[in-house]
Every structure is written in C-alpha cells, then in structure tokens.
Amino acid sequence: MMMTRGTSRVARLTMGGRLFSAVKGAAAEGEKFPVMGVRWRSSLTLGEKEQVNNKNSEDGGNKEVVASYWGIKGEEVKKEDGTPWKWNCFRPRETYQADLTIDLKKHHVPTTFLDKLAYWTVKSLRFPTDVFFQRRYGCRAMMLETVAAVPGMVGGMLLHCKSLRRFEHSGGWIKTLLDEAENERMHLMTFMEVSQPRWYERALVFTVQGVFFNAYFLAYLASPKLAHRVVGYLEEEAIHSYTEFLKELDKGTIENVPAPAIAIDYWRLPADSTLRDVVMVVRADEAHHRDVN
To answer: pTM to 2 decimals?
Structure first.
C-alpha cells in the first residue's frame, strides 16, 4: 500500500512538472494558454493568426496555428466570394439579416400571480443595474448579455434531458433555446470589441452569472412558465436599455464609431455600418427573444 501511494505521488508530481513546463514554455514563446479565461487561438481572427504565423516564421519555427480548443486544426472556410472566413466563433451559415420591422412596443400585461411575480422580479433587478452602470451603456450591454445568454442554455439543457428521459421529441424547442443562447453570446462578443470591461466589472460578472444561473435553473424546474415569463420581461428591459443607448448615440454623448468587423459579418451589415446600426440589430434580436419567451 505504501509503495502504491508513493508511486502515485511520484506520478502526480511528474505530471504536474510536465504541465508546468508546458505552460512555462508556451508563455516564453508568446502563446496564449486557456487558463483563467485567457483568450486562446480558437477565438483569434485570421489577421491575428497571420501575425502569429509571421512571428513563428521570423523565429525560424515551423509551428502550425491550431484553431480548436482540442488541438485539432479546423476546416478551411470561405465566404461566398471565395475570400477566407476569418472567424472561428461562428460560421457563414449562422449569419443573417435582423428583422428591423419587428414591433418594439409589444408588452405582455401581467395578469396571473406568476406573471406579476416575474414582472416585479425583473423590475427589482433593474434598480441596482441603473445605479451601478448609470449611462455607461456599452458596459451595461456587456453585463446584460452575460446574463441574457444563460436562460436559453439552461432551458435547452433541461428540455434536452427531459427528452432523453421520456424518449420523446421536444417540438423543436431545444434548438430554439440553444440558438437564442448563442445569439446572446454573439451580442457579448460584439460589444467586447466596443467597450473593454474593467476588472471589477469582470468580477461582478462571475458573481451575477453564478447567482442567476442557479436561481434560473431552480425556477425552471419549479415552473417553466415562470422562467420564460422572466426572460420575456428581461428582454423588454433590454429593448428599453438599447433604446436609451440609441438616444445617447444620436445626441453625441457616445461616439458613433465604425461597427466592429465581427458585427458586419454576423448580421451581414454594409461595410460602412456604425455602432448605431449594430445597436439597432441587437435591439431587434431582443424583441424576437421577447416574443419567443
């Protein structure tokens, strides 16, 4: 038994030493390691990859850029015009043009107890958000999207498990909710290019996401109807926030900078689009999620 424990301990120390050496070597060579949320190569754009390739060429290395978290080289994807596709976080088939004609003023009047509970829960969450972010709508949007991307994933996961347990179809709702979560995540990736969060805002995301994920998980188990009502009213608040964002852009309080490249490709926007155009399509997405929930 003592020999087994000693051998196991030596094995652990050896593996730990190898891992430390790998991390140390990667850091010395300027590579990005997926540790503590550090962005790795799967999220690099084509231009950034070319810079890595150029650096490796200058150093005389023959290292190949890996476009996957699992160490597998991704397939080469091209646009319709034959030019290389420069994003690893989504593919051309996932792009679309947002429906800007959707009704932004639609509101579900709370009638039942669950409706009122969902409505006032969301309203109570708005107050601390207004106090913390005030009119910093770029950072406010990032915080909103880190929360808004959670319900679709939780709902899709629970419906997926339910479908497996009952050996029955989901009626398409699993894919609908997971697509919603992915769309909200792309909102976050877009606003990350516009406004960089401060360290305490990143810390707040950890706290809020942890609390909200578990609370929404339990709420969905107790009453899916209540959970979806909460999301519906949350999306109504998102529409209001983005409308205020647009007002600040129109007044010149917030600079109407060029649209990030990721937004232009994801929503198929014109090349000369601005931040205002991005906020418009994001607001339209939120209105769609409001109606679905």
So the answer is: 0.73
